[in-house]
Amino acid sequence: MSLLEIRNLKVEFDTAKGPFKALDGVDYTVDAGEVLAIVGESGSGKSVAMLATMGLLPDSATIAADKMEFEGLDLQTLSARDRRRVIGKDISMIFQEPIASLNPCFTVGFQLGETLKAHTDLRGKKVKTRVLELMHAVGLPDPEGRFNAFPHQMSGGQCQRVMIAMAIACSPKLLIADEPTTALDVTIQKQILDLLVQLQRDSGMGLIMITHDMGVVAETADRVIVQYKGRKMEEADVLSLFERPQNPYTKALLSALPENATGDRLPTVSDFAEAGGF
Amino acid sequence: MSGDTILKVRDLYRVYETKATMFRKAKSLTAVKGVSFDVERGTTLAVVGESGCGKSTLARMLTMIDAQSSGSIEVDGLPINIAKTGISKEMRQRVQIVFQNPYGSLNPRQKIGDVLEEPLLLNTDMPAVERRDLALQMLQKVGLQPEHYGRYPHMFSGGQRQRIAIARAIMLKPKLLVLDEPVSALDLSVQAQILNLLKDLQDEMGLTYVFISHDLSVVRYLSDKVMVMYFGEVVEYGTRDEVFNAPQHDYTKKLFAATPQADVASIRKRLALKADAA
């Protein structure tokens, strides 16, 4: 059985101009121990799909799916109370802006401890011990000293490590990373990606990477879903996708990479749209 | 084209001082430490480095937003030191800048036509009719339509806004155009369009670019010369092929190693390593 199985997911937003279809019938499956990358441009619905899974979309969104199951648990009929038991514990998420995701008024040690208090029986000193373990596991230098640091006293890369520590605090079965390295420098990006992949391998959790960066896909994914305007364009394992892209949109994306430039001009997606008709 | 140097920078320093308070001594931070380089007419110099390395401080000095602490800048023979001489209209016309975020760099209450005409209004004595004609011509040149003249920024996509920002910057036919991460906020396919536009404009108008970026694949595609900065110092400076084929400094090597590889051979290698570990 798959860890996460979603069939025919549709998400619509009510807007002043009438309903807007953000996702139009997309399937997702993730197995334990697998890294799935969802790639697409802004507006492709890649984040919306995962926010719908987590139940984080605003009320203006209408979500419909034939099936939406996490380990056989139906996420659609789950009450808010039951959902909170799953979210943050078995499924957790990392967002793009690490500094904005942390509360500036509390120390990182306190914020990490909150997650543990909400989902585990650990209390008192045991919480602190576990927090320090986590900070060590994500490679934060000097965990003892950092425990009482506020988010603004740390760099973006360090804050992202705290977010990762928070996400893995309860050993989740599924981790969703929404553009985890977009706001970071290349050298820091490399460290964070290596960390995520290593944690994933050690714990055998499922990992969903949402990104627009084909380089990140190439470095981390086992399987890739390419999305465009709320529809799935292509799904393939990472090697076949880069070696033999089938869909014209995927071909367009890959050839728009500056490193694949052959002539004087970069081909753009609109060049392919005319020829391929998507 | 050799010998036709348009930008000459020698031994440039920028020191920021924090004021002493009751609790803190005055501190000084040297953001740019003795940078020297030349840029020839019609070529592109790429400045690469991570956040905090001083590349944006350099851009601020080149565009006369900040004064240098010491050292000399010369644009097409005209020495620039705004702390001593102030800024003349002539100096303003020589250097223009395009910023990273096209959502922040356009005034939401200003129509596109006014955005484009403002540099002319402030810096030249051109009559209104001529300004309008030039603005309309410029819209076409950057791939927009004449009917966009009376519209507001919120009616445009990110890529279109960046086209407007580029159009505004070249209205005065500057000798030097500083591009501060102009494509980092854009989707891959839009990024390709903007890079094509920049190349076309350079060929057509003989523009000289200082292109600030942290994305090495973009740099490789667009630049003639590359300068790598690290903690305010230039650690590597040479032609594109020299720097990319035989990087000398450890930091440059680290930067290359950290850049995600999106080619099939690298993916094969990663998957093989993963299979071995399992």
TrEMBL record, chain A:
Membrane topology field: Peripheral membrane protein
Highest taxon, organism lineage: Bacteria
SMART domains: AAA (SM00382)
InterPro entries membership: AAA+_ATPase, ABC_Ni/Peptide_Import, ABC_transporter-like_ATP-bd, ABC_transporter-like_CS, Oligopep_ABC_C, P-loop_NTPase
Major subcellular location class: membrane
GO cellular component: plasma membrane
Protein name: Dipeptide transport system ATP-binding protein
From TrEMBL, chain B:
Gene Ontology BP annotations: peptide transport; transmembrane transport
Identification of the protein by name: Dipeptide transport system ATP-binding protein
Record's subcellular location: Cell inner membrane
Molecular function GO terms recorded: ATP binding; ATP hydrolysis activity
NCBIfam families the UniProt entry points to: PRK11308.1
TM annotation in the entry: none
Membrane topology: Peripheral membrane protein
Domain ABC transporter, chain residue ranges per copy: 7-256
Alphabetic keyword roster: ATP-binding, Nucleotide-binding, Transport
Classification of source organism: Bacteria, Pseudomonadati, Pseudomonadota, Alphaproteobacteria, Hyphomicrobiales
Organism, as annotated: Roseibium hamelinense
Record-stated family: Belongs to the ABC transporter superfamily.
Gene Ontology CC annotations of this record: plasma membrane
